[in-house]
Design a protein that fits this description.
Elements: H1 22-29, E1 33-34, E2 39-47, E3 62-63, H2 66-72, H3 75-85, H4 98-106, E4 112-116, H5 124-136, E5 145-154, E6 157-159, E7 178-179, H6 190-211, E8 228-229, H7 233-247, E9 251-252, H8 254-273, E10 276-277, H9 281-305, E11 315-316
Parallel strand pairs: 6-7, 9-11
Antiparallel strand pairs: 1-6, 2-5, 3-4, 4-5, 8-10
Helix pairs in contact: 1-9, 7-8, 7-9, 8-9
Length: 318
């Protein structure tokens, strides 16, 4: 259980422990990856406070910029789409209200300008969110804001069976690093069910496997490993995130995915070409994590390229 692939993107709502390394480690051990193209994206604030989750239930109370209203077909049509978009959190290409998310995505990193227009009477959930914004975050819920799409949860990952097995003896996986429980879309909150249900099954399965006489290996008997580090690690990670931000967020294209694949391959080559023995555990760890992230990113881009039509959270332009 090592988290999803959020850290492949610079704009993300995931916590820092979602390192996007478990997927590559498992694949290297012989496990399969599934549904890697299905990354969920959620609206989040850019200003007045960056990185806060935007409450999608407030979409219906937002006024859009005039140029966006025109592109959506006018005030009446925009209101209808905003009402529909208020019913769910993660982006999906399946519904008409994808037009709202795509307008946000097209606004770029600076986000789409929104003006809240709340009525006097509000649903309890919206009231709670607005009070939290005001009291805990210091944000006036009635002030103008900018919203962008952020990488959120992974619907794909390590392929597991109903017992959390991966097909590799002794290797079990659970949580957001896995794939198969969710399809192209899922409702917000179900990643918790994934973690709890398959976390328990993974623990039970691993215990049964160990009790059946699993081979024991002492640490001192393991082959030694030469710590390798590359001066290109930081640049490779920056290049990876820039490519993923530009080509693998909510709106993707066939040409863009090809460009992303080329950038990832170049970054991996530069990283590997600079590897040399190092006495710094920190530098070696950074280089190793970067190499694994590049492999996970390549798996995501490869899966997206193999699906040239929109499906769920995977949206292809045109």
């Amino acid at each position: 259980a090592g988290g999803g692939a959020g850290s492949l993107f610079s704009r993300r709502l995931t916590s820092g422990d979602c390192r996007a390394t478990m997927q590559a480690l498992a694949a290297g051990a012989g496990a399969s990856l599934v549904n890697m193209e299905f990354m969920q994206f959620m609206p989040g604030m850019v200003s007045p406070r960056k990185g806060l989750v935007f409450n999608e239930k407030t979409f219906k109370y937002m006024r859009l910029p005039h140029d966006v209203l025109e592109r959506l077909g006018g005030e009446h049509e925009a209101r209808r789409l905003l009402e529909l978009r208020s019913g769910y959190g993660p982006f999906t290409a399946r519904l008409e209200s994808r037009a709202i998310d795509l307008a946000i995505e097209e606004a770029g990193p600076q986000g789409l300008a929104l003006q809240p227009e709340f009525p006097r009477e509000l649903p309890d959930f919206v009231q709670v969110y607005n009070r939290w914004l005001q009291s805990e975050m210091g944000v006036d819920p009635c002030a103008p804001l900018r919203v962008a799409l952020y990488a959120h949860a992974s619907n794909g990952g390590i392929r597991i069976g109903t017992d959390a097995s991966t097909g590799v003896a002794g290797l079990y996986a659970a949580g957001e690093c896995t794939g198969g429980m969710h399809g192209a879309d899922r409702l917000g909150g179900l990643s918790t069910a994934n973690c709890l249900v398959f976390g328990m099954r993974a623990g039970e399965s691993a215990a049964r496997w160990a009790a059946q006489g699993a081979p024991r290996v002492r640490v001192r008997e393991l082959p030694s490993w030469t710590a390798l580090a590359s001066p290109a690690a930081c640049a490779a990670e920056e290049g990876m995130r820039a490519a993923m931000d530009e080509h693998c967020m909510a709106l993707r294209s066939v040409a863009g995915l090809e460009q992303a694949a080329a950038v990832l391959e170049r970054c991996a080559c530069e990283l590997e070409g600079g590897l040399a023995p190092s006495s710094s555990p920190r530098d070696a760890a950074i280089s190793r994590r970067t190499a694994l992230r590049l492999q996970t990113a390549a798996a995501m881009v490869g899966a997206a390229r193999r699906r040239p039509v929109s499906c769920g959270s995977h949206c292809i332009a045109g």
